[in-house]
């Protein structure tokens, strides 16, 4: 594999129309200090730095790209919100013929063994009133601990 231009090791991408620096910069500084000064592991440090304040990922969704050996890794920590799509998955109306618009479909969590859990959900459309069958959290979604 050829060399990329310059000695990149970490690239941050913010997937929002604007970035709220007052929320993001504290997490970025904490992350960079831990990784560059303390030599901490990149992904674990990313989770700790960017989830310690929920406002960071609520307002400025993040993509982090980094190199681990000769492999380039791209990952996205997501703040899961029912109204925007649980687990970061864009909710869609279960009725293919529904002329739904943005904001018409929302996520709903379901009880698992009589306790409300963040592992089972469905989508409900306000426009046509249909609700999808409940579905399980995908294997690729990993929950991050909240400090």
Please characterize this protein's 3D structure.
The structure is a single chain. With 147 residues, this protein is α+β, with helices and mostly antiparallel strands. The chain folds into two domains: 10-75, no CATH class; 86-136. It has three helices and six strands; from the N terminus they run βαααβββββ. Strands 1-2-3 form a three-stranded antiparallel beta sheet, with helices on one face. A three-stranded antiparallel beta sheet has the order 4-5-6, with no helix packed on it. Strand 2 and strand 3 (71-75) form a beta hairpin. Helix 1 (21-37) runs antiparallel to helix 2 (42-51). It is elongated, with a radius of gyration of 18 Å.
Overview in brief:
This protein is of the alpha+beta class and 147 residues long.
Beta-strand level of the residues, as a percent range?
25-35%
Which assembly state applies to the chains in this document? single chain
- By helix and strand content, what is the structural category? alpha+beta
Radius of gyration, CA atoms, in whole angstroms: 18 Å
How many helices? The count is 3
Low-pLDDT runs: none
Average residue pLDDT: 80
**Helix-residue proportion:** 10-25%
Order of helices and strands: EHHHEEEEE
Largest sheet: 3 strands, antiparallel
If strands are numbered along the chain, what order do they take across the biggest sheet?
1-2-3
């Amino acid at each position: 594999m050829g060399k990329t231009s310059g000695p990149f090791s970490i690239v941050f991408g913010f997937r929002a129309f604007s970035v709220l620096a007052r929320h993001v910069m504290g997490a970025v500084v904490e992350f960079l200090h831990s990784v560059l000064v303390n030599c901490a592991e990149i992904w674990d440090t990313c989770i700790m730095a960017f989830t310690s304040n929920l406002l960071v990922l609520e307002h400025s969704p993040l993509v982090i790209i980094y190199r681990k050996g000769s492999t380039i890794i791209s990952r996205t920590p997501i703040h899961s919100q029912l109204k925007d799509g649980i687990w970061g998955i864009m909710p869609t109306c279960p009725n293919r013929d529904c002329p739904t618009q943005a904001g018409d479909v929302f996520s709903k969590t379901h009880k698992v063994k009589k306790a409300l859990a963040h592992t089972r959900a469905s989508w409900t459309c306000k426009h046509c009133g249909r609700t999808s069958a409940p579905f399980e959290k995908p294997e690729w979604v990993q929950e991050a601990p909240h400090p």
